[in-house]
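TA notes. Do not distribute before section.
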Amino acid sequence: MDEDFTAAVQRGLKLSKRVYFGKPQVGPHSQLMARSSPEVSELVPTAPMVYAVILHPEIVDNPDLPSYQPYVHGRCDPPALIPLQMKEVGMEIESYMDVALVTLRGRWRVHCVMGSKSCDCRVVIPMGEQGSILGVEADVGGRSYSTQVIQPEGDHNEEKVSKLEDGGFLKPQFFSFTVPLVDGGSEIYLNVSWSQKLSYMHGQFSITIPFKFPEYVTPITKILPKREKILFNVNTAADKEVLCQDPNHPLKEKARHMGKLSFLYEADVDHWSRKNFSFSYSVYSSDIFGGVHTQSPSMHDSDQREMFCLYLFPGNFLNTKVFKKEVIFVVDISGSMRENPLEMVKKVLYKALLELTPGDYFDIIAFNEDMHLFSSSLELATKEAVEEANLWISKNLVSEDEAHITKLLLSESLNKAISLLSNSRELLPHIFLITDGCVEDERNICNSMRVHVTTHLHISPRISTFGIGSYCNHYFLRLLASISRGLYGAAHDPDSIEVEMQRWLRRASLPITANIEVEVFDRLDAFEMYPQRIPDLSIGCPQIVFGRYQGKLPDSIKVKGILANLNDIDIDLKVQKTDIPLERIFAKQHIDQLTAQAWFFESKQLEEKVIKLSLQCRIPSEHTYLVLRQTRPTIQEMMAKKPKKANVEKLEAAKDRYLSRGTRIGFGDLLATAENYSVMFGNPKSPEASSVYMVTDCCSDLCDCACCRCCINFCSKLNDQFVVLMAQLCAGIACLACFQCCSLCCNGSD
């Protein structure tokens, strides 16, 4: 999480001590208030949170019970963030195959701002694996807000949008937006929905949703009940028995059908959930199984072709034979990969080499302005060869500040990797490309790799791609993986490189079925599938593809492939209608694949298709914007009233707020690649801003200690009768001083 954010929350918690709640309370909350400040790691949101954005500290007070504390001079720059108390929370989860749709409803109260004042409130939504925001609705003080996806107009440009930008992704897993002008004491009602992926390991699907609330968001009062509710529905899409692991929340099973489960948890609680919501299940089968689900489009769908979803699961048979592999790692070691990114990559490579199975072959290519090879030919993955490779990695995978990716080096490195492959029928060739930059000839690379893939005799090379940061062209990497049956992965944030790379490699490891084809698709009137070619089925990764077709599918279709023992396999898949919302759960994947194709073909027609799909599904894309828009009252209704100063402020607050940060990752940055900018997510922070922040923070802490906080702490420990006596004494002395002043002024006069 951004250091500025956690520092702002830290200052907000200190500032919240000005809020007076009446007589001291004995209990967990009073113990919490008495303890030392929380650690920085505890300030990172682990559940949906709402913060009061405090610019002027004098407005901080209890809106119901003013404490009349000493006036605080100055302002908070940058603003402090005070976590708001939560009054109610509920979550509804719909799990379909490997995607979960999450809807969270909550109610927060602005408990720390005077009733006569107002402040902005910042909402932060942490999401799980590969989270994608689907929609936000907010109600506060008679006003309603919702997120909308809009098409850029003629006067929209990046500079204008950046000035109006007020939200988006703080980090890839943290979505944020601001609700303006919220009065002290008022309540904020939120309805937030997002999608996230389920992880798959050892035959189990697992989901983890951030639902761990800090103690300081629990209201102090015990009069009103605090209600917590979780509704969880599972639809595996397979007519198989579902085996569940014990969940970490006390879920009660409501219904169970073949392939479907429903659970409910509802309770009045003393404190909010202190652990994330986790659930795991497995679909039992001793062999490979799958199916095809079809669905007709809605009448409002711009594409009236039928939708389909094809899924293949590896089953739970642990003795399945896996392919022997030829593995080549192609690693970018340019200057931008220095320090943490490259160290994380090396750490993952060490583990990947140790996990190679007997009979595998491997090599390593590192590139920047030059190309460095571990070996001139593929090496058998023996213990000695792996140890030698680890030493070579430590010595040669070192980034140089001045070294950058040249125009042809990426292409030459991939061509070199393909030339090292043996074209053997018994070995599955796999190239793993890892980079954080982009080059000018990316379309040519896609074309040349497509030729290599189609001209290979037996099993074509798989090229799996992994992009680091926001300066590489993720759509190029996605397309390159798609045309070669490879897998695409990304780490947009430096802190997630190790975890995401391990997940990416695990999905590609232990392949059991290759060259998967469905012949009946070629006989349809029209057909479109994402990704373009079905990747290999491995023990660590089920395959689920989505597409559109025109024509008629039979009641069952045959899927063909090659097993690791080189025998052909035919799998019969049943075709059936489904009520699963296919368009909604695959919309993000569909938009990303279409965007990659639009970039590759430089097609305005495909861009228009992306825009239509983005507007229809309400999911932002590279060619649309996500905005927070006031829906009630509208600007027209507000302008009909008499123009007052308050109305002018509300009119300004009612303008669209662009939530584009992180929702548009772009098509790479050639300048940043050439200049070796370090891996960043979003906009880099200038060093000047950091210096100003350090100075102001130091001064504010000094003034706080000398003037305000120490005085408040001292006065709070004084006896009430002593305070009254001292006040009367001071009043008497003041009266005597007034008499003396009058006598001096009137001396010698009548």
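Switch to the second chain here.
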Amino acid sequence: MTFSLSGSFYWSCCDPSTTLPPQRVRFSNIMEVRQLPSTQALEAKLSRMSYPAAKDHESMLRTVGKLTVTDVAKISFFFCFVWFLANLSYQEALSDTQVAIVNILSSTSGLFTLILAAIFPSNSSDRFTLSKLLAVALSMGGVVLVSFSSMDSPDGKGTIGSLWSLAGAALYAVYIVMIKRKVDREDKLDIPMFFGFVGLFNLLLLWPGFLVLHYTGFEAFELPSKLVWIYILINGLIGTVLSEFLWLWGCFLTSSLIGTLALSLTIPLSIIADICMQKVRFSWLFFAGAVPVFLSFFIATLLCHYNNWDPVMVALRRVFAFICRSKHRIQRLPEDCEQCESLIPLHTVSHDNESFCL
């Protein structure tokens, strides 16, 4: 049957006297219209513009969207108390326990950040994924091991310092998630001006605390010595101004989760400082807990770099499909839920021509 069809087709093509019926091709009369989500409207508009026009438009948007001095002052007033309490908790933890333990316990802010960012998302990079949760759980597992390594403190200050560290971690998570929700882009906020207003409001509003602490006998007020003034200036310039500026800038450029997990990068230096300067000896639990905390930062960086890639969820779906022996089905992409689809009929088609529609 196949040979006869091929032969007839061959003779029909070679015989000039044979006329073939005209081939008609009709396209479908259905037009599909997709509307991009509003979050991609700016990128779609810039992609249709020339490069010089796109650069001019981008610079104009930066100028127009930049926050005024009044807006920066309002944001600073809202966050000055949260920033003060977070730093107070961290400094109290440093006075009650060792530096390395404080830094590792402070890295638990990644868990608080992951939860708060899922509840109050600022952009797509704050989306909750199972892989991010496991990365934070890996960090938390290291924190548990480090906490066990400090349980042998005879004066009980290790437990108090751990509580201060956890309180500071939660406050830092609230601070970074809320400020990213208020300011969506780093070019809208003048970060040095923001921290300048934060320091100004703390100076104007919190100075009565000196009198309260002094007359209640909780902490006597006295002028610091020359050496303490030097330590205050160095800590203010390096430990507060420079580190807070770079940390907040990095959180705007990446994500709030990466910014909070980046605190774990201070762990190796703090360990070396405690071993060399204070002759502190750490048990094997401390080092076993420091490794996963340090590793979780790089895992979270890879997950956010590849557009919230979730390999754990993909692996679980494949295992579930293999166990259930289910057939492969076409799955909608995560972006499809943000798109609306419309089918617009151009004209009606007769039943005779339906077989020719592609």
